[in-house]
Design brief:
The chain has 244 residues and is an alpha+beta fold. Helices cover 18% and strands 40% of the residues. It contains 4 helices and 14 strands. The strands form 2 sheets. Strands 1, 2, 10, 11, 12, 13 and 14 form a 7-stranded antiparallel β-sheet that branches. It has a 7-stranded antiparallel β-sheet with strand order 3-4-5-6-7-8-9, covered by helices on one side. It is globular and about 45 Å long.
């Protein structure tokens, strides 16, 4: 939930996310398929609040959460609901992007969401006062880093690492993006892509969705337990009948 990249190459969409969290937080449950509001959705579950930072559905929608909006905010609890539950609320809607327009977020901690829905890439932000919706070019490659954990200067450095990696690798696939998220700048345990800040805050997992044709593959790497699991969900193409 704290470093996210988006890459579209050879008709394949790859969204990869590193989750940085306190080590005292209970370990997440690996991704499973759930039924919600008539949809099949798949996500790793945070047992503490029951929500998630990464969810996909059988429409081919991918929704990824990062803590914080544009800049680091002052934490001001109590909050009404976990941000991970907001993720599930959005994905349960017929259209998450339409749900975003009407969803009430008062007393929710600031966050950023990367949403890929119906071939359109969105950046959604809540800064504690206002919502923001930005349509991004899905033919370009993007990276985000969590503002509460990384200063603007560090976020810029991470962008430079990302674009330098892309320049050196003309063709990137899912494995290449996993390698980038797993092994880039490994000597920097404070601000690298895999962090370990005094054994209190660590990168716990990497989650990656790969969309191609009518399949969505989800790979989950538990970096603490050193376990990997993979599962798939079939993208159901909606057929619209012509009106008479």
């Amino acid at each position: 939930m704290c470093t996210v990249s988006f890459v579209k190459t050879n008709h394949t969409v790859i969204l990869t996310s590193n989750r940085d969290e306190r080590v005292l937080r209970p370990s997440a449950e690996p991704p499973l398929v759930y039924a919600l509001a008539g949809k099949k959705i798949m996500y790793p579950k945070d047992p503490q609040a029951g929500g998630t930072w990464y969810v996909v559905d059988n429409d081919g929608t991918v929704l990824v959460l990062l803590n914080g909006a544009r800049e680091k905010h002052i934490i001001n609890p109590p909050y009404r609901k976990s941000r991970g539950l907001i993720v599930l609320e959005l994905i349960s809607a017929l259209s998450p992007i339409l749900e975003w327009d009407g969803i009430l977020l008062e007393k929710i901690e600031p966050f950023t969401i990367v949403l890929f829905e119906k071939e359109v890439l969105y950046q959604l932000r809540w800064d504690g006062l206002e919502k923001e919706k930005l349509v991004l070019d899905s033919n370009k490659k993007h990276i985000w880093s969590s503002s509460p954990l990384y200063s603007a200067a560090i976020r810029k450095e991470r962008e430079q690492l990302f674009y330098s990696f892309l320049q050196k690798n003309e063709f990137v696939d899912a494995q290449a993006m996993y390698q980038f998220h797993r092994y880039t700048d490994v000597e920097d345990s404070e601000n690298g892509l895999i962090i370990n800040r005094n054994n209190a805050l660590k990168t716990l997992s990497i989650t990656q969705a790969v969309l191609k044709d009518s399949a969505l593959d989800l790979r989950y790497f538990d970096l603490i337990a050193e376990q990997e699991c993979a599962s798939s969900i079939v993208i159901e193409k909606k057929v619209q009948s012509d009106s008479v």
